[in-house]
Amino acid sequence: MLRLLCFFSLTIISVLVSSAENFTLRGRIIDDAGEPIEGATVKVSPGVAGTISKTNGEYRLSCAASDTVVVTYSCITYRTVTRKLIKPEGELIINIRLLSSEKEIGEVEVREIRKQTSATQRIDTHGYRKNAADPTGGSVESMLSTMPGVTGANELSNQYSVRGGSYDENTVYINGFEIYRPQLISTSAQEGLSIINPDLTKSVEFSTGGFGAQYGGKMSSVLDVQYRKPEKFEASLNAGLMGVESAIGTASTKFTQLHGIRYRRNGSILSTTDTKGEYNPDFFDWQSYFVVIPSERIKISLLGDVNIANYRFEPADRNTNFGTMDDVKKFKVYFDGSEKDKFVSLFAGAGIDFRVNKSTTLALQFTGYKGDELVTYDISGEYWLDQAGSEDSQIGGEMGVGKYKDHSRDRLKSRIFTTSLRGISAIKSHSLTYGLTFKNMNMNDNSIGWESRDSAGYSLPVEDMLRVFYFTRSNNELSSSQVSAYVQDNIKFSGKYGYFNVSAGVRATYTSFNKEFILSPRAQIGFVPAAAPKWAFRFASGLYHQTPFFKEIRNADKLYEGVYELHLNTDIKSQKSLQFVLGADYTFKAFNRPFKLSGEAYYKKLYDIIPYEIDNLKVTYSGMNESSGYISGLDLKLFGEFVPGNDSWLTVGLMKSNENLRGISVPVANERRYSISLFFTDYLPKLPKLKVSLRGVFMDGLLQSAPHSSRDKGYFRTPPYKRIDLGLAYGLLTPDRSGNSLKWIKSAWIGVDCFNLLDISNVGNYYWVSDVNNVNYAVPNYLTRRLLNVKLSLEF
Question: Rounded mean pLDDT of 657-680?
Fold first, then answer.
């Protein structure tokens, strides 16, 4: 009888325990913008049960049942939310929206700024897009050039250098698809529209170094852009004197679509340079993003882009004054000929996301890129180089006359196809990401170019051949395949000493062209101390490789003086960078508004480097692993709301580098020893609908060397780059405090931009001429001058 009683007692206890274990709580945590919150803490009382949300914001935990259970949701910089559950049982789904920490002091709203505990930071591009006076039209890349550690090429370019790296060392993703750009662009006048459409973006994440193993292929930076899924009908229109842009999106339960079209002409701003003539550039871009959700576990996404850049130019004449106040020279040229370039980029990507179970999601992606680039020009000129008059002599002297002719026929066709499988799995408090990618690349290059220079006004035939200053030709085909894989573990937890964010991973790559296998280990740690929650610290390190792309592979064989033939170097290896990054953030309040002061110190050890020289946007590589060196520096940023509701920032960067180039110590080609950037927005207190924006850049000049030479043979720096752009915008129609506007127009703004407010002549590169004594002079090619632009922005 006693045994039977024990049996029934154990049975009842096991049933009670089983029912307690059946109480499961799961859901998703998002912020006020609908973005998933990673690392939010979920605690249940009574008891000690708790968990942390995953990368996608989802959480899940099991706990003992009770008559009343209190669930607390919390995260740094967000309001804490509690939910009381009465006699919970079975499986409960609770989705939570956490709002940014805020409280009212009088009529001023105070919010805390999100802390950064990883190597990747989230950037809000929408305010910059709406307010900035930007010659590129508010591109994402232009905003990046005002970030710490980042310097833009010039005001019309979307190219940027990160901590002394080449323009080719930056990886760009849109919705997980890796993006490629044309290779033959040599000036910002040719460049056209960036493939990133700022009107379609939902979120932008950016890393200037120390990024995780899921990002591969480049050494300097990662730009990860996500396009949004519309929740309802939306549309926008931006029109100005330089172009027009429009976006439209619709949504239903299982299908969303988003389209963006842009057209731009830069002729008006290009005409402000010293070279006068007929500028006729036009740039077009169409992008479409579709999302189909056939079931709760499957999502299908499609992204397509057509990007066409036409650059047509017929120069007429040019007048340039250069030199010092005591030694002014005049350069006069009359031109004949024209340039016609065309760059066509077609991109398509398809992805299928499949939720295997509550803890694992897989994504299969296919991408295809086709590029067709054509650069053709025949431009000749007759020039006069004169010594201008001084205070003592009003009559200058003629220093030299001459003729020149530039000829080019460059054609590059590219086809790149990629298949990738990626996944993310939640294993207890760990978030495990992994992936496998196969890439096939085919490129066909056919080019011929020559330059004729004669300071005497004629050229002489040598051995039945007309001698030219420089001649190059190339006829190469590249076919290469690449396989890469990565795995990375991330864990976030809160303890007695504070909040920790730790990740470590490794990336492996094999390239068939040069038969190279590389391993890239990486690790990051972030820490917010419980004793000082206003501080956040982070450290990242890793070995980064950059697999040679097409331009890096080409090596010039000298046939005889001034004549070269380009071939592909099959013995070339990946460039390597061992990086260390130490950073800290400090958040504080001033003037009853939130601010954040950030700083990062970095050191990059470089080896197996392929040296290059920069001429405007043209990056010419030596085609051999023949240099090594280092880059170190300090980046600072002050970010906050100097004016309530409007983000502003000030950044300062200091850099020092050294490259051992063929036994000679020189700075790296993209070294800017100092840089200061400012973006500031304001409004008039008595006229809040009138907004003012100021964008300023002051940075060190780039290194320059003689034509077809290199820094080890001699170099100098361009003058510092200085520019201020001012914008005024007035709200013709803005939502009132309750969010009401017209039925079909949400907002309407009209604005006036003044580009290059101070009308400063910045130097882009140099044109080299000779006088009668065969002395070479570097004549500066100045960038754009002051220009007014009118624009109208509508949101529907």
Answer: 95
- Candidates 458, 572, 428, 437; CA nearest to 508 is 437
Strand partners, 545: 576
The residue type at 587 = T
Sign for the CA dihedral angle at 324, 329, 330, 333 comes to negative
Element containing residue 7 per DSSP (H, E): helix 2-21
The span from the CA of 526 to the CA of 88, in Å, is 36
d(CA 35, CA 29): 9
End-to-end CA distance of the chain: 80
Predicted TM-score (pTM) of this structure: 0.84
- The residue among 273, 242, 275 whose CA lies nearest residue 134 is 242
Say if residue 46 is preceded by a cis peptide, omega within 30 of 0.
yes
Q: What's the number of CA atoms in the CB half-sphere (13 Å) around residue 788?
A: 4
212-245 pLDDT per residue, tens? 999 987 999 999 999 999 988 999 999 999 999 9
User: Nearest-CA neighbor of 468 among 580, 380, 401, 537?
Assistant: 380
Does residue 500 have a pLDDT over 80?
A: yes
d(CA 637, CA 596): 8
Q: 349: which 2 tokens?
A: 């990507």
Per-residue CA distances from 78 to 30, 358, 496, 744 (Å): 11, 25, 20, 34
Contact assessment for residue 386 and residue 397, using Cβ atoms and an 8 Å cutoff: yes
- Token pair in block for residue 682: 């304001």
Q: Are 228 and 258 in contact (CB under 8 A)?
A: yes
- Tokens matching residue 5: 């009683």
Please give the Cα distance from 574 to 580 (Å, whole number): 19
Three-state SS at 191: helix
* 3 state SS for 269-331: HHCCCCEEEEECCEEEEEEEEEEEEEECCEEEEEEEEEEEEEEEEEEEEEEEEEEECCEEEEE
Cα 136–Cα 139–Cα 144 angle in degrees, nearest 5: 115
Average pLDDT, the chain: 87
Closest CA to 314 of 338, 297, 290, 294: 338
Q: How far apart are CA 20 and CA 48, in angstroms?
A: 14
**Tens-place pLDDT, residues 556-603:** 998 888 889 999 999 999 999 999 999 999 999 887 788 999 999 999
**C-alpha torsion sign, points 708, 711, 714, 718:** positive
Q: How far apart are CA 629 and CA 425, in angstroms?
A: 39
Neighbours of 88 (CB within 10 A): 20
Q: What is the DSSP string of 497-531?
A: TEEEEEEEEEEEEEETTTTEEEEEEEEEEEEEETT
Going by C-beta distance under 8 Å and a sequence separation of 6 or more, which residues neighbour residue 597? Answer: 585, 586, 588, 636, 637, 638, 639
> Average pLDDT of 599-620?
94
Label residues 454-491 b or e (16+ Cβ within 10 Å = b). bbeeeeeeeeeeeebbbbbebebebebebebbbbbebb
Angle (CA) 468 470 472, round 5°: 120
Q: How far apart are CA 359 and CA 503, in angstroms?
A: 18
The CA-atom distances, in angstroms, between 316 and each of 31, 65, 160, 231, 279 are 57, 84, 31, 52, 10
Q: Which distant-in-sequence residues (6+ apart) come within 8 Å of 755 by Cβ?
A: 133, 135, 155, 269, 725, 784, 786, 787, 788, 789
Amino acid at 316: A
User: How do beta strands 721-733 and 747-755 pair?
Assistant: antiparallel
CA 220 – CA 209 distance, rounded (Å):
6
Give the integer Cα–Cα distance in Å for 784 and 274. 9
